[in-house]
């Protein structure tokens, strides 16, 4: 995590500002200027971005040598930081001690955000503007005490910190885990054989990744995937009483362990209740979804016509899932699966900033307000994406929303932002 050092001379309000950043009362505020305190670091998060705040505190004020001491301390803190939040007191202006820190900052070449604190009312803004003369860029007028301007300041801090490394799933958690699911005889093991076929021996243990013995590493389009519970697919359990029960337990287990589920449906047969049950499990577990219509070689124009109508009727709720029509037997279009899995993963991991989300919600509510119900009209006040994998949104409202309206919100979210191949979870927090 990137480190933000908060520096400035004693009594400019650093600790109060750190409290603001942390959104809690953890850093102790020292009313006595110049109390010796160690550097303290805290975990902070703003707009989903985590960083560490190092509060350099106040330093011993042994009259002479004060400026030098501060510069020395600041130098240490700055050296270890990725960016620096330099706090000055707008009501006092810049003192020698401030200048000493500025010199250190210039030398360090670290990105600096300048906070002109104690701008408790608009009249003090002019004093904040005077801080341009420090040559550190725009002074952010804030009141750490009242919280004024702290949002803009934090946005600027995020800008100054190094960009978040693109967290590739493979680096963080190993290969993406994929479950091939579907009822018996739809062609799961045939598909697995085609996928693993030539590649299997090559990738086995070559990457040094520890893989559950029931799983297999498969390479598609140059990327490695961990297909989970393939042993359950390969080991062809003979139909016996209770078989279906165990099969569904296994399916459930595979779904839980995967990020993305490839749901195999027999294109030559009518979509069945069992297919729909498995699909429900996938979506309820919040996993990414790819629909595979297998045995395409067995379909003729007539069957395809009817299949399209069945899909429209029974699988309409999954319209957002990437689809691949293929033949596991001949191998035709099996090579399209990798791209579909990646697409589902991109939707599953997609994140929308709070700003974009609320601009969208504002337009949505204006164009399509919630219907009046029992004399009341619940309204969405604000929303935030709490999580990805799957995308989970919290909507703050003035009352409970109709399921139908929630479906509308979900559909509009997809139209606006995409979210291919993933369920979307919407949670409502009503402020009655
Ligand atoms: P699983 O139970 O889902 O693993 O299904 P299998 O892979 O064992 O396949 C069941 C049957 O369907 C086998 O006889 C396969 O040969 C056949 N099958 C699988 N995929 C295809 C396909 O794409 N086309 C045709 N014609 N048959 C297929």
From TrEMBL:
Binding positions for GTP 2 per the UniProt entry: 182-189, 229-233, 294-297
Pfam family, one: MMR_HSR1
InterPro entries (alphabetical): AAA+_ATPase, G_ENGA, GTP-bd, GTPase_Der, KH_dom-like, KH_dom-like_a/b, P-loop_NTPase, Small_GTP-bd
Record-annotated EngA-type G domain positions: 2-165, 176-349
GO molecular function: GTP binding; ribosome binding
GO annotation terms (biological process): ribosome biogenesis
Keywords: GTP-binding, Nucleotide-binding, Repeat, Ribosome biogenesis
Superkingdom per UniProt: Bacteria
Binding residue positions for GTP 1: 8-15, 55-59, 117-120
PROSITE patterns for the chain: G_ENGA (PS51712)
Function: GTPase that plays an essential role in the late steps of ribosome biogenesis.
PANTHER family: GTPASE DER
HAMAP family: GTPase_Der
Similarity section: Belongs to the TRAFAC class TrmE-Era-EngA-EngB-Septin-like GTPase superfamily. EngA (Der) GTPase family.
Subunit relationships: Associates with the 50S ribosomal subunit.
NCBIfam families reported for this sequence: GTPase_EngA (TIGR03594), PRK03003.1 (NF002828), small_GTP (TIGR00231)
Protein name: GTPase Der
Species annotation: Naumannella cuiyingiana
Gene assigned in the entry: der
